[in-house]
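For the sake of transparency, this paper describes our internal protein records without simplification. Because each token names a local backbone shape, the row as a whole describes the fold. One such record is reproduced below, unchanged from the form in which we store it.
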Amino acid sequence: MCSIFASSTPHKRTRTASLCRVGEPALKRTRNETVASGSPRFDETYIVDQELSIIKGDIYLKIGNTLFPASIQKLRNVEGLFSDLFSIQQPEHADLIYGLPYCEMFNCSESELRVLLKLIHGFKHVFQRRKTVDDITEFDVEHILDALLVSSRLDLPGIRTEAKDAIYDFFGSMWSHIIWGKPPPEYPIVALSGYTMSKANALCILSFRMINVFKECELVYGLPMAYYLAAQQNHNDIMDGAKLPDGSLLELHHIDKKIVLKGKEMLRSLRRNVTFLWLLEHVGRSRDYVRLHGCTSEPYPKGKGCYDFVFDLYILFYSPISRLLEDRCDALESISFQATETIKCHLCPECHKYFNDRIIRSLSASWSEIPKIFTGYNWTKLRERQNEIEQTWCERLSYI
């Protein structure tokens, strides 16, 4: 269980709590006439980031030898650290690289800064893109996590809120039918973009990174779903780490490994006893079946009616041979759209409506258990805690 309620009173944040003095971006001052002339310093070779080269900037943000062009005015408009830093009057003889002043950036990677500047300069589809042809929303979750991380480290509340809302939108889209009590969609309505690997490998990496980023950025309301996705991964990846494209491993903290592995077992039980409760609660009621459901079916070929069909489903799912409910821990997956259509063909209208409602209710009950499994708290308590955390981000603007 993660200790998200270690303190009952949200602490006041200050900039020095998240950024040490040497870790803040720093505008460079003049060193000599050669520097001010606009040629690269000390024979270093600088590279302008290609994805941002279309920006007609009047300053470079610099990481190592990579230059990221930016508009000072747009940087000033970003509430938080950037507004303060880039509103300072610049010296007349500032250091120049390729004719522009520059600012050394710390506490962020090149990919994180690239995403941040795309958001600041109004690039489209940084987080998601809606494909109208098949009604699928493509999410670039890596971009969302990059923005969440860099905005939290650099004290940029507005960007943080934008990233936070995007990750909630991702989760809400994935499980919208459960949240809103609807049947499962015919086709997946969410896709991942920005990956050349399989969806399974991408989800493994994303789930582990989500846990690490959410904990650092105090996104407690998103942690249960990050843990849930991590629990769907195989045991070896959870223990040893997920292999990244460069061959390195993305590992979880040992405490998170325990939470995920324990949750994995609890999800198996949840899937069996709650998600598929609609099957369990009726297999022993053959005599009362017609009275309870208002069944109007006539026996199907081979003498089978609605009850017999549901009982066959029970045997299929709970059989020790098929192991459909023994080896899986995806407790938020019940019956697919195709399966619901098959069930509809074998049940009378009254029974179909009844079981359709029961399937939705069972999934909703499982959804309510997810945060308790991984944090010990329900969704309402986590939301209250998240609101307290976000309030500190609003309050800091008044005294930074």
About this structure: Residues 220 and 385 are 8 Å apart (CA to CA). Confidence is low (pLDDT under 50) at residues 6-23, 29-43. The longest strand covers residues 59-63. Strands lie at 26-27, 47-48, 59-63, 66-70, 102-104, 128-131, 136-139, 190-192, 242-243, 249-250.
